[in-house]
Amino acid sequence: MYDIAIIGAGVIGCSIAKELTEYDIKLAVLERNIDVAMAATGANSGILHAGHDCETGTLMARFNVEGNLMFDKICQDLDVPYNRCGSLVLAFSQEEINKLEILKTRGVNNGLKDIKIIKKDKIYKLEPNINQGVMAALWTPTAGIINPYELNVALMEISKANGAEYYFEFCVDDIKTIHSDKKRYFEIYSSKGDKIKARSVINCAGVYADKIASLAGDNSFSISARRGEYIIFDRPSPVNRPVFQVPTKMGKGVLVSPTVDGNFFIGPSAQDIQDKSDKSVTLEGMRTIKAAATKTMKDLPYNRQISIFSGLRAIPSAQDFVIGESVNNFYNAAGICSPGLTGAPAIARYICQHIIQKFGFIKKKSFITKRKRIINFKSAPNSQKIELIKKDIRYSNVVCRCEVITEAEIVEAIKRGATTVDGIKRRTRATMGRCQGSFCMPKILEIMSKELNIEMKDITKFGGDSYIIAGDIRGENYDKKS
Ligand SMILES: Cc1cc2nc3c(=O)[nH]c(=O)nc-3n(C[C@H](O)[C@H](O)[C@H](O)COP(=O)(O)OP(=O)(O)OC[C@H]3O[C@@H](n4cnc5c(N)ncnc54)[C@H](O)[C@@H]3O)c2cc1C
Fold first, then answer.
1. Between the chain's N and C termini, which has fewer beta carbons within 10 Å?
2. 3-state secondary structure of 4
3. Contacting residues for 60 by C-beta, under 8 A, at least 6 apart
4. Beta strand 136-140 with 116-119: parallel, antiparallel or unpaired?
5. ipTM of this predicted complex?
6. pLDDT tens digits along 202-235
7. Residue 353 CA to chain centroid, in angstroms?
8. 316: CA distance to ligand 1 center in Å?
């Protein structure tokens, strides 16, 4: 019997797991996918929002501002790269300047101190490549950028190191509340019929959190999906920080932003969709974000466009995060749309405090507080590169040439739990460069086959039937088939 089962291993589930594993708790994390960061956490803008967008008094505003301030420590402890580069919201007309004033007042009411409206000369010093015609901008120095999937991986690794047990490909299908001998607990069933017992459940199931809540008897909210599409470009970035336009009813609008890895992107769009699994990228979506981004920057280098993707926001019916205990011992961390990435550590702390108080769990005498990321050979100083190669010759074998990722890094990612090509990608950046894996994929498959002791044809991109190899075209079976 587990004390607690968390459903969903996105940034929210794993942040809560990190907090709870500092206590003497038997904890399970149940995830329907084969890895972490495969839903909203793996496909978002990666902005640590300052906190001027959310209506004052909402949970969104509270956790945004609190969470933002927690990232310096978290990123240091978990060795996750981030950059507090600030953000700008541009105004091109007097009407938009009026909207900036509203945002500024809201930011101040939400607790932001350094938020201000700046004039042209300062704006163009900060961002020389944006279009002419900007009249003013809202400047928030506490905003930043982070790699969301690396954060998610780091949170899983540290919570695992502190005792959390992760069950992947465990799609929760049913929850039964059991009352026996004055004990009350939950039986949680997977779609394959596996069963986990836990005294308490925390629902962090993203767009499916309404379904999970209703399995436990909580029908108080629903979640709809809003798709956001992106275009990502190769380095260098023409902007130094996220550059927003004034927000609309559908969200914060299309932005131009660098990533912590030096690329940049435009997006996201905002389209309400019925199918919660539809992460397709559409011609209409591409046209929308291109047209909108042109307002910020005219000559975007589309010859350096390297990928397109989309993510699904979990929009709660009540227009605010759904956080806290609903039915007895069943907790929701649901409807965590933007700024949920920023709010994650504060949401986790809040939920954890409530559970600790209720159950009286005791803090462990010792637990692991630091985690190191996989050594990035490319950014290591030359002296360290030589040492690394002396220790492990596989550091001299560059597999992904665009991102300069070595065999040793890929092997380390596999040791840390990557079982798919996307798992390697999220942990090392292999295949994320300009060629998007066209050259290095066969080499990566060879390494995975050897390290995981599986046949290359059984390797998938992201689990399920996403096989990379469709069949033989040459080689030993070529003559027989032709
Ligand atoms: C386009 C877009 C842009 C965004 N930009 C930002 C931003 O710049 N800054 C910011 O702060 N926030 C941003 N967000 C919001 C942020 O991404 C989310 O708030 C955050 O990722 C939510 O994390 P989560 O763990 O709740 O959800 P998810 O990452 O979706 O994780 C939920 C997990 O639950 C699992 N699950 C679902 N059903 C089941 C089941 N039945 N059994 C087991 N597991 C299940 C899923 O597989 C998934 O892994 C953005 C979101 C989107 C989509």
1. C
2. strand
3. 54, 320, 321, 339, 343
4. antiparallel
5. 0.99
6. 999 999 999 999 999 999 999 999 999 999 999 9
7. 24
8. 12
